[in-house]
Amino acid sequence: MISSFCAKLDMQESEDNCLSGDEKAFLTVAEREFSNFGEILEEARSRRISVGAFLSGAPLSLNTIPVRSSAQFYVKKHTSSQLPYVHSHDFYEIIYVSRGKCVQRLADNKRLALQQGQCVIVCPQAVHSLERCRAGDIILKMVIPQELFAQCGGQSVDGIASGVVLPLGNIPADAVFSILKLFECQGRVSQNVIRGYLTVLFSELSRRAKPCATEEEVRAYLLGHMRGATLGGYAAFKGYSANYLSRLIKRDTGKSFSELLALCRMECAQRLLAEGDMPVEDISREVGYDNPSGFYKAFFRQYGLTPAQYRAAVFKT
Asked: How far apart are CA 262 and CA 270, in angstroms?
């Protein structure tokens, strides 16, 4: 399996490298790959953007987001000649890092980095781009049409939803085996065999340790990032999308991220008021309030006392 795996990697690298220098071949593949190819071409021509500009890797800002489309299952290496571009697709895509690292940019320009042994499911309609891979990286991209995904139990994976980019972290050994086997045997086995491996893969992914967000873990992050803590920042730190992490926190703690942040800020302020003579305005900035009046209101709402009254009560006792 190892020799055929490496041979297939090398073959795909060679094929993509040849394509990157051939404008006519590039257009043929693009027409086949993008369901809205006509719109893309029309905008490019109206703005005098050449095929050469696409192939050069120069940053291009198109109003039309390319939509990849496929009715066929396949697994392909993210080759070194593939350039980053923002796109979406009408199929599910599983991206697995066999070696090295994979960096994605999501719709809100947040960065999602996958390390060796980790994978992500990119659902239909999600918008993302993959940064160019480095020498030695082995990143596999599995394209699964929606019907095949449903037939093989893909919906059993927790967190699957249209438009979602779902990081799964490190995945079980049997799931890795299924991915590598599908890459190695595609084109040589029947659809039933492919369905079998995909069913095993989704079964393993659905049984993986469910991601959790304990209140203790969230609080530890907040205490270390009190001044500038945001859900987006925490999501980037964890490697999840902000929407997914928000649901996870609510599910596992019973509180929203903003509720936990407010609680941590008040508890920290409470401690600072009781431990010394730091001015109240300095405390408000320390716990993340740019406007002292907002801090005063939040503190009174939480404790029924102003910060000054609370400090006086503490020192009185």
From this structure: 12
CA distance 141 to 93: 7
pLDDT at 209 over 60: no
Domain limits of the chain?
66-207, 215-316
Q: What distance lies between CA 255 and its chain's CA centroid?
A: 23
186: three-class secondary structure by DSSP: coil
Does position 78 have pLDDT exceeding 90, yes or no?
Answer: yes
- How much is the pLDDT for 59? 63
Mean pLDDT, residues 284-290: 91
Name the CATH topology of 66-207: Jelly Rolls (2.60.120)
Q: How far apart are CA 89 and CA 94, in angstroms?
A: 12
pTM for the model stands at: 0.67
- Give dist(CA 229, CA 203) in Å, integer: 36
Query: Alpha-carbon dihedral of residues 133, 139, 145, 147, nearest 10 degrees?
Result: -140
CATH number of 215-316: 1.10.10.60
User: What would the mean pLDDT of 100-121 be, rounded to a whole number?
Assistant: 86
Gap between the Cα atoms of 179 and 140, Å rounded: 8
